[in-house]
Amino acid sequence: MLKTSVANIPLKSTTESHKWAPGDEVHYNFWRLDGSLGTVHPARVVEDDGAHLLCWVLDGTPIRVTTSPDGRSPRQMPLAERFNGPRVPARSTWRGTSTLRLVYEHRWASVWWFFEPDGTFRNWYVNLEVPLGRDATGVRRVDGVLDVEVFPDGCWSWKDEHELADALAAGRFDEQHLDRLRSEGEHMIALAEAGRFPFDGTYCDATPDPKWALPSLPEGLLIA
């Protein structure tokens, strides 16, 4: 299989720099290195300075996912198939918890605060990602498969390491990308162990604006 490179899609947005105001709808877009669009999570902006976007993905938000042509989600597929084969877009819903997300424009990670349905903080999730800048709809990222989960007591664990070999074999990224993603994860782990931001309790009592309506999912995103 021909492996793709991050050079196959723009590392920077193809439009001028965008910044969003509190309450704006923005899309958290996950692209693949072959230039195809994967998951899209509509979000509400808390604040944005161009280098750091803080936003909520609210419980009940309609999202774009991709499935196999027969309707199976990636988690329903064996690993050998999870990163290969044709995909079609489908509508789904972000369920069970609202997440506050800090998206670093130039770092290979975003940090997500997970909250219980009653608003109690649950844990942090470091989503390791290749940053691709912004466009008019939102931020552009490539999911790095490998992640780090961090708990309020400072304990942490790597997530989805068992998927890496198959993701590499499918050309989702290469060894150089993986080295950079793992290095970013190690940096975040060091911050967590030291109790430094973003793992210092900041935003653990955050709540979304109750006046916000759920963001929408444009129908055009469901066209293959």
From TrEMBL:
It holds the Pfam family DUF402. The keyword DNA-binding does not apply. It comes from the Bacteria. GO terms for molecular function: hydrolase activity. Residues 61-197 form the DUF402 domain. Gene3D superfamilies: FomD-like. Keywords: Hydrolase. InterPro entries: DUF402, FomD-like_sf, Ntdp-like. PANTHER family: PTHR39159, UPF0374 PROTEIN YGAC. This is DUF402 domain-containing protein.
